[in-house]
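Exercise 7. Given the encoded structure of a 281-residue chain, write a plausible sequence.
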């Protein structure tokens, strides 16, 4: 079915201002296209024509009305990339991003899951231990003919301003997957991933030292140790660097001396006696 629509545009004022006719025609053409039309074009750009034709059959009617209202077609193609990574051996994918209108401490996290929704009781403790405050959550049902998916979009906030997502995105994603799979502990030490920029293995090393302190009856709780390390990210980063320098035979002694000097300089700025005692252990 073909239809022709004639639009009559009137200008405010006596004389029309300067305008670009081709640009105006392009905008009107985009307004006349449906979201699914945009999806088909974006699929071809994102996957190539041959694969896009197959994916369009699968996802053309899969996205719910709420998803189409909140996200454009190009975002949908990006999300499809994540959905296609899910299988029986990988039940979770994630995307950490910051919307254009978001504040410096804000960010969003999309979780992609097969078959069923993720219970909030499973994921909220993980986010809280990562130092994230959950402001809101929006679930989207992606009902493809051969597979049903769920996308959970979490609006998050972190107390640390100016978090560089491009620098921490990979380490955060890897840590989140490890915690989800039970390969890393889900506790307060995980906030060091964002606050100090550590990866999950470095956090595990500090957690091991904290548990050693518990075994020798050091008089501070595990949560207090984790909070102190998070409050002094520069010292925490230097401690991790010191560990690496001491146990890496390829390092030069001068590098170790420089690291110790920087650590002592940082420690001079610790005002709390308890924190100072802990960090010098």
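Solution.
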């Amino acid at each position: 079915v073909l239809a022709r629509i004639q639009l009559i545009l009137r200008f405010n004022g006596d004389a029309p201002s300067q305008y670009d006719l081709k640009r105006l025609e392009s905008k009107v053409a985009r307004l006349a296209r449906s979201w699914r039309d945009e999806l088909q074009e974006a699929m071809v750009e994102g996957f190539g024509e041959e694969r896009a034709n197959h994916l369009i059959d699968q996802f053309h009617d899969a996205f719910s009305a709420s998803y189409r209202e909140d996200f454009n077609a190009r975002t949908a193609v990006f999300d499809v990339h994540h959905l296609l990574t899910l299988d029986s051996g990988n039940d979770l994918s994630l995307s950490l991003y910051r919307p254009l209108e978001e504040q410096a401490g804000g960010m969003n996290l999309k979780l992609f899951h097969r078959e069923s929704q993720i219970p909030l009781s499973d994921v909220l403790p993980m986010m809280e231990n990562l130092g994230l405050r959950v402001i809101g959550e929006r679930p989207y049902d992606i009902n493809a003919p051969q597979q049903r998916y769920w996308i959970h979009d979490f609006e998050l906030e972190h107390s640390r301003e100016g978090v560089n997502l491009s620098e921490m995105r990979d380490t955060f994603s890897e840590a989140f997957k490890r915690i989800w799979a039970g390969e890393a502990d889900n506790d307060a030490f995980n906030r060091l991933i964002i606050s100090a920029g550590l990866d999950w293995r470095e956090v595990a090393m500090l957690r091991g030292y904290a548990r050693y302190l518990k075994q020798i009856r050091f008089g501070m709780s595990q949560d207090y140790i984790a909070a102190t390390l998070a409050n002094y990210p520069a010292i925490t980063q230097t401690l991790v660097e010191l560990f690496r320098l001491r146990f890496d035979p390829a390092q030069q002694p001068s590098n170790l001396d420089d690291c110790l000097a920087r650590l002592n300089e940082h420690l001079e700025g610790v005002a709390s006696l308890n924190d100072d005692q802990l960090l010098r252990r």
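Remark. Residues 188-279 form one domain. Students should compare their own answers with the one above.
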